[in-house]
Specification:
heterodimer; A: about 150 residues; mainly alpha; 4 helices; about 0% strand; B: alpha+beta; four-stranded mixed sheet; 7 helices
Chain lengths: ~150, ~270
C-alpha cells in the first residue's frame, strides 16, 4: 500500500491535512485519467469503443469536479481565487492575477493548513477559523455527526 | 474587504478565532433544518433571489402582437442577530484565557438558529417562505402533551402516510426541545431506549430542533426541501466603544418546499 500522497511524515500530520492530501491525490488521478482518455479517443478507430471511452471520460469529469469542490469548500483562499477565475469570460491570466491579489486582502487565515473549511463546508467538515469572506463555513449539516 | 467589516473591529486573530469557534459550537447542534434538507450554496452576499422557473403574465401588450411576462423569483431573507463582547474578555482571550464570557454570542447564536429553523419548518409568511410542516398535505398527527409512550405509534403512522404517498425513506425526525428531552429520558418496557426505537422506525436521525412545534417526520431522499444560502452564517462588525465590541451574526437564504407530501407534521 503506497503513501505517496504524503510529502511529510503522515504520523505528524493532523487528520484533516491527511484527508486534504488524499483528496489532492485523487484530484490529480482524475485529471490524469481525463488526459489518458483524451489520448485514447484521439487514436481509437472503433466507434463502439470510442463511445464507451467517452462515457468513461464523463465519469472522470464528474469525479474531478466533486474532488475539486470538496477541496475548495475546505480551502477558503483557494475557493476565492477559483471564484475569480472559473466560469468567467475574458482573459484567464488577468482574472487569475486579480483573484490572487484580491485574495491576499483577507485576514490571512484563509488557507487549509489549520483545517479551516471553506464557505459551505459539507457534512463532517472540520471546523476551523472563518474563511476569507468571514463565513463560519457551516454549510450543509445533512449526515453530520454532531 | 467584505461588507462584514471584520478588519475594522479591534479584535486580534486570537479573539476572532475564539469568537468564531464559539459560534460554530453553538450553531451546529441547533441548525436542525440543515441536518434534514438539501443545502445549496453559499452563493454570496450579492445573491438576491432564487429562480422559481415560472413567469407571471403582464397585463396588456407593450406593443401590439407582443406578450410580456415577468419572471417570478423568491427573494432571499436576511437574518441578523446582534450581540456584544466585552473588551475585557477580548483582552483575557489574548492573554490565554479559556473561560471568556461569550454568553451574549451564545444567546445570539441560539436566536438566529431558532429563526432559521422556524423558517424551514413553519415558514416565514412575510417573506413568502412556506415551511415543511405548514406545507405538508398530510393530515396532522397530534403528538399530545407530556407522555412520550405513544410517540412510536404516532411516528410509525407518519411513516406509513409517507410510504402510502410513494415518498421513499430514509426519514428524519425533527423534535422540538421538550419532546426531544422526553424521548432521550424515556425507556420503554424492557428497558429499550425510546430514542433507538424511533430511530429504527424512521431509518434516519433524530434531530434536536429548537423552534419546532412538536415534531416533523421528513423524507431524506433529497430533492424535496431546498435551502439556498446566499451568505452562510457569518459574524460581522458593527461598532465599538470603550467597554464592548458590537458584532452580529448574519446570513441570507431562501427556502422552498418542492414536495409538500414528503413530510408529516406532528404538532403538540
Amino acid at each position: 500500500m503506497g503513501f505517496d500522497q504524503y510529502h511529510e511524515p503522515p504520523e505528524e500530520l493532523p487528520p484533516e491535512t491527511r484527508t486534504f492530501a488524499r483528496m489532492c491525490a485523487s484530484l490529480t488521478e482524475e485529471a490524469e485519467a481525463i488526459g489518458w482518455y483524451e489520448q485514447r479517443l484521439a487514436l481509437e478507430p472503433d466507434a463502439q469503443a470510442r463511445a464507451i471511452m467517452r462515457d468513461a471520460q464523463g465519469e472522470e469529469f464528474k469525479h474531478f469536479a466533486m474532488d475539486l469542490e470538496y477541496l475548495l469548500r475546505r480551502t477558503p483562499r483557494w475557493r476565492e481565487i477559483a471564484q475569480g477565475v472559473l466560469f468567467q469570460s475574458g482573459d484567464v491570466v488577468e482574472h487569475g492575477e486579480e483573484a490572487e491579489a484580491e485574495s491576499g486582502e483577507g485576514d490571512g487565515d484563509g488557507g487549509a493548513d489549520g483545517g479551516a473549511p471553506g464557505a459551505g463546508g459539507g457534512p463532517g467538515g472540520s471546523f476551523g477559523a472563518a474563511s476569507a469572506d468571514g463565513s463560519l463555513g457551516l454549510g450543509s449539516l445533512k449526515g453530520a455527526t454532531l | 474587504m467584505s461588507h462584514l467589516l471584520r478588519e475594522h473591529a479591534p479584535i486580534t486573530a486570537a479573539g476572532w478565532s475564539e469568537i468564531d469557534d464559539e459560534a460554530r459550537e453553538r450553531l451546529a447542534p441547533a441548525l436542525a433544518g440543515r441536518r434534514l434538507v438539501d443545502f445549496a450554496g453559499p452563493l454570496g452576499w450579492q445573491h438576491a433571489a432564487t429562480t422559481l422557473g415560472r413567469v407571471a403574465p403582464l397585463a396588456g401588450e407593450p406593443v401590439r402582437g407582443v406578450a410580456a411576462a415577468q419572471r417570478r423569483v423568491l427573494p432571499l431573507v436576511e437574518l441578523r442577530a446582534p450581540f456584544a463582547v466585552a473588551r475585557d474578555e477580548l483582552r483575557a482571550i489574548d492573554r490565554g484565557a479559556v473561560d471568556a464570557d461569550l454568553d451574549a454570542l451564545d444567546a445570539a447564536a441560539q436566536r438566529i438558529a431558532v429563526a432559521e429553523n422556524l423558517a424551514v419548518f413553519h415558514g416565514l409568511e412575510a417573506a413568502g417562505v412556506e415551511g415543511i410542516a405548514s406545507a405538508s398535505t398530510h393530515p396532522r398527527i397530534d403528538l399530545g402533551e407530556g407522555d412520550c409512550d405513544r410517540y412510536p405509534t404516532h411516528v410509525a403512522r407518519a411513516v406509513a402516510m409517507l410510504l402510502s404517498a410513494g415518498i421513499e425513506g430514509p426519514y428524519g425526525l425533527a423534535l422540538g426541545p421538550e419532546p426531544y428531552t422526553g424521548v432521550v429520558e424515556t425507556t420503554e418496557r424492557g428497558g429499550y431506549p425510546l430514542l433507538d426505537h424511533l430511530k429504527k422506525i424512521v431509518g434516519g436521525p433524530l434531530v434536536w430542533a429548537p423552534g419546532v412545534d412538536g415534531a416533523v417526520v421528513v423524507s431524506l431522499r433529497g430533492g424535496d426541501f431546498l435551502f439556498e444560502s446566499g451568505q452562510d452564517l457569518s459574524i460581522g462588525y458593527d461598532r465599538h466603544d470603550a467597554d464592548a465590541v458590537h458584532l452580529y451574526l448574519e446570513e441570507s437564504f431562501s427556502f422552498r418546499v418542492a414536495t409538500p407530501e414528503a413530510a408529516v407534521a406532528l404538532p403538540r
